# Entry
Amino acid sequence: MAHSARATLGLTQPANIDVPKIAFSAKEIDVAEWKGDILAVGVTEKDMAKDDSKKFENSLLKKLDAKLGGQLSEASSEEDFTGKPGQSLVLRLPGLGSKRIGLIGLGQSATNTYNFRNFGEAIAAAAKTAQASDVGIVLASTGSISNESKLNTASAIVSGTVLGTYEDNRYKSDSKRPVLKSVDILGLGTGPELVKKLKYAEDVSSAVIFGKELVNSPANVLTPAVLAEEASKIASTYSDVLSATILSAEQCIELKMGSYLGVAAASANPPHFIHLCYKPSSGPVKAKLALVGKGLTFDSGGYNIKTGPGCSIEFMKFDMGGSAAVLGAAKAIGQVKPRGVEVHFIVAACENMISGTGMRPGDIVTASNGKTIEVNNTDAEGRLTLADALVYACNQGVEKIIDLATLTGACRVALGPSIAGVFTPSDELANEVFTAAEASGEKLWRMPLEESYWESMKSGVADMVNTGARQGGAITAALFLKQFVDEKVQWMHIDMAGPVSSEKKRTATGFGILTLVEWVQQHSS
# Structure
């Protein structure tokens, strides 16, 4: 992600740091003879079982331990390494082709994408600590893994390794570059199909990093105009399949987007409505989809300003996490180029600020479908921007829409920091997206769209208010959005207020991109 050189508040400019370039390859060789800095072995708790003489029962570990004169089993016992998730043991021992051997815990069993991506991230962490440039990766047990599962396993490991290696140091005055240069995936097969899968994992991972960089960028750098610039750069980079339309405030007035423009009215930084369109370079289009992302580059709360402990105003640069997911997906789709599917990527980008020109509590705004909204809380602004974005998406003639937004604190309270809430009246769409999420390793939970809760959203003077009762706040927010979707269109709302960022790392996660790309791929012919 590269920004223009315009002056910003605070004169901050991010350094241009390239995504880590790691050469991945798949090999079938004797792991004991593999040469490099670290041979990383993924082990489950079952793999760590030992016989009466305290020797490994697992055939691969037994072989490696024999080469190491029994020191691996001895060290694992002394260090109480049992293969639990998060455990790692890296030893420098003579006897193998590699300089070091590392045992990485996978837990009781490793059967899904989430586990194997975490495994890749743990390998990246071990490589950083050891300053390793060449790593070999092998699983202690692969006998029960099907060929298709081997492809997905290798892909998840690659994704985790890339994401674990990358650190966003663009805003630090001094940063270290990662030293990891090559990774060999051992024992999971070879051939063109696997090579293609590894390339896919690298492409999508680079898009996740792009999304992380967008969300991590502070609001004094990433204004609505800069977000629109980034979107346009994606389209120009993949101009064979992507086109960009950026609407100004004046053009949005012509489209009667009063709900979106009401939110943007207080800011000195004008709004930019972003529309990227992906069309395959050849062949018929059999599905038309839209991805809509909330794009508040900063949210002060407006006149209902965010105040007091826990208001998190200092983290409100994260309020464009939905747009980062959508634009990250656009970047990945531009690289992967799925056939037979048209995709619209839509973001109503703006800031929610405070000024004499701003929207006041009690104001009535009119959305582009003619519905009127009494604004009883200016801090429920994301749904106002999404209202016009959803109407616009429906007007593109799409059959299915997914919107993503850091919409409510209520959803974060309900599901915690790792799980996004899903709202949709369509069981078919829910099944598609949950299948995609399982393949991507991202966590979603379906929530109810309880229609009776709409009573609290009724206004005495307009069609609706923009916030209802405190209880069920994530549900009433979803019900609000539903008012702006054509009944003929299958629609899903994903509230990602929890997983947009990592509390532990205090940075963005890039959540949503992996699932969106998988979902689009499902519709590809």
In short: The first helix runs from residue 59 to 67. The mean pLDDT is 95. The two ends are 31 Å apart (CA to CA).
